[in-house]
């Protein structure tokens, strides 16, 4: 994650960020003029397309996100992608201290200087951050963020990987991904992300956000989603690694039957007749409960399945 250094205005963990892309300076000035007072380093910052930067500039939306998040003074809050601090300032009115993860060097420095003593700024890619290490002993993190839309799915899988250290996650994402999270079987949106998030947490779509609430205006619509990791799916797979392998492996041969998918991940054909699931179905036709049951029935083949290289991925 880099080398941590102390500065007079706060704690910041340095990591080099990509160079900025060219942005119309007139648009930047217009945004600054209509923004609330911020630190000069963040106020004059040019959005970087390479980092997927679309800054929230609607105060009403920011207030609604924080109000629904409902932070308490004792909460351990981590904000992902704070940008210019639209949510940060509101969150700090509820908690005495919090951590933010920001890859952009200028924004990270500006936030550390703007909120001395109140922020721990991790200057890093969120995918490189060990979230579990940030959780307090005997407690869990509360995550919040307007995350870069170009890496939404990897971030969600990263959080799932640290789910035992996470209480909840209030996240702004593109509407397309929110629809995938809430998707039902037999729909085109239903896939690995749908099954995993419906299994590991309870996902609730809270509200949609206009494109005009951001600068620059994004090309996609946005939705705020709340993920509650204290309320997972009621049925639990005995072998979590096997469950994940079955879901990833069968969706890895999407639009093919379960029989083909299970063969790909190393399930012995001799076991097929013992399975209660119709193997002529496709993975997108199975419910979360079906996948849990299937993983349980495949337990005798766990060793073979977990040691087989399959075609599955994150979607």
Q: Ends: how far apart?
A: 27 Å
Uncertain regions spanning at least 5 consecutive residues? 1-10, 14-20, 27-44, 311-315
User: What structural class results from the helix and strand content?
Assistant: alpha/beta
Q: How many structural domains does the protein architecture include?
A: 2
Strand content: 15-25%
The CATH class of the largest domain is identified as Alpha Beta
| CA-based gyration radius | 21 Å
CATH topology of the largest domain: Rossmann fold
What's the name of the CATH homologous superfamily of the largest domain?
A: Vaccinia Virus protein VP39
User: What's the β-strand tally?
Assistant: 11
Output the helix-strand order. EEHHEHEHEHEHEHEHHEEEHHHH
CATH architect. name of the largest domain? 3-Layer(aba) Sandwich
Total helix count?
13
Which structural traits does this protein have?
single chain, 315 residues, alpha/beta, Rossmann fold, Helicase, Ruva Protein, domain 3, 2 domains, 9-stranded mixed β-sheet, two-stranded antiparallel ribbon, 13 helices, 33% helix, elongated, disordered N terminus
Structure description:
By secondary structure, the chain is of the alpha/beta class. The chain folds into 2 domains: 4-228, Rossmann fold (3-Layer(aba) Sandwich), CATH 3.40.50; 240-306, Helicase, Ruva Protein, domain 3 (Orthogonal Bundle). 33% of the residues lie in helices and 17% in strands. The chain contains 13 helices and 11 strands. It has helices at 25-34, 40-43, 59-69, 88-91, 105-114, 131-134, 152-161, 175-181, 192-200, 240-251, 258-264, 288-297, 302-306, and strands spanning 4-7, 10-13, 55-56, 76-80, 98-101, 119-122, 141-146, 166-174, 202-209, 214-215, 222-228. The protein has a 9-stranded mixed β-sheet with strand order 1-2-6-5-4-7-8-11-9, sandwiched between helices. Helix 7 (152-161) links the parallel strand 7 (141-146) and strand 8.
